[in-house]
Amino acid sequence: MWAGVILDNGAPVMWAHATGQLTDLPITDGVLTPDPWHYLHRMSFYRLLIAATDPYMSSMGPGENQSPIWGLPLQLGWMLTSGRLADPTGLTVCGSQGGDTADMCISPNSWWGCVNYFNSVLPFLSAVKQGFMGEGVMVQMQSPAGVEGFCTNYDSCKAAYPDAMNNWDSFFQGLKDATTSPLPDNEKKDAILGLYWKAQTSSTAAASACHEKLNSYSGVEKAFANSWLNAGEYVAAAHFQSNLELASQFMSPLPGRILREDDVPPNIPDLTTEENHSLYIFSWMKSIDNFLGGTLANMWRKAMCSVTTRESGREMLRQLLFNPEYATSSFLSIVTSMSTSCG
Predict the structure, then answer these.
(1) 178-209: string of b/e by CB count within 10 Å (b at 16+)?
(2) Quick check: 113 and 76 in contact, CB under 8 A?
């Protein structure tokens, strides 16, 4: 049986091998020059981001590992172990070892690796610009031979994707502002999560630049990729706290391998019951949304209008994903009534 590997000794995959020191990344003439097509460099962006922002996350709750940023390195690790960072065209062997430490290559042809570029490189560059990595730090991402069309420094990313960069800047500024805010912790937390998800969804929107790369996958994997994007909108609107514990729970039922043309979800024999169920739910949400002309997602966003309804929304998503007895029809009726009551 396949099963997605989400955790490695309680942390994202290869976390212990990622650096927690900025100066361990390559430096050329005083400028940081990391290679975002090397898995450990991307994982290092997350490790550095979480360490730099943790002092501003006290409203997220007691204990460690409460930062919502944890969802991103967990996702990157799942992409690695499920083979989704490999070259889907088969023209190169980049990333084909599926988590072998000798092959840390992220293929520029991978749609998943491309989408993650926007959710790793952009927030890292923004955090550096906002001073979270120290004063006067400059970063110029490497572009390996043949890799084109990706912004590589703060200015080029800001010019190409102003919405995403502005939203990441607002998130990091919001973290600083929260330290002096008189709001109670639960409202601070909700505000920070709102800024975080706005930034993450705008990064994912910018990643529409990756769309052509989807054509290298099976129709079944393409359908899953699109339903995965769609599910992200629900999670974002509910201000899901993607801390280490909750994010790993929500990602554990993601499919542990790339889906093939002959796979028929939710009846794929070498995937677990949980993986098959999550594929069914993702597909159901996407198909209902398509059937309703995009109104299910709109109704959901409308329903997530307060701290209280977002709390209910998070619980509904949990039931939908983990409780096979939870009727999809009740989900629809609750969303409809919630969106109406929000006015």
Answers:
(1) beeeeeeeeebbbbbbbbbbbbbbbbbebbeb
(2) no
Structure tokens at 227: 């339903």
Dump pLDDT digits (tens) for 149-183: 999 999 999 999 999 999 999 999 999 999 899 99
pTM to 2 decimals?
A: 0.94
Dist. CA 81–CA 15, nearest whole Å: 13
Sign of CA dihedral 312, 123, 206, 192: positive
Average of per-residue pLDDT values in the chain: 92
Is residue 178 helix, strand or coil?
Answer: helix
Beta strands in 13-57 (DSSP E): 27-28, 31-32
At residue 290 the predicted structure's pLDDT band, cuts being 50, 70 and 90, is: confident
Alpha-carbon distance 183 to 191, whole Å? 10
Backbone φ/ψ region at 230: left (φ over 0), alpha (ψ -120 to 50), beta: alpha
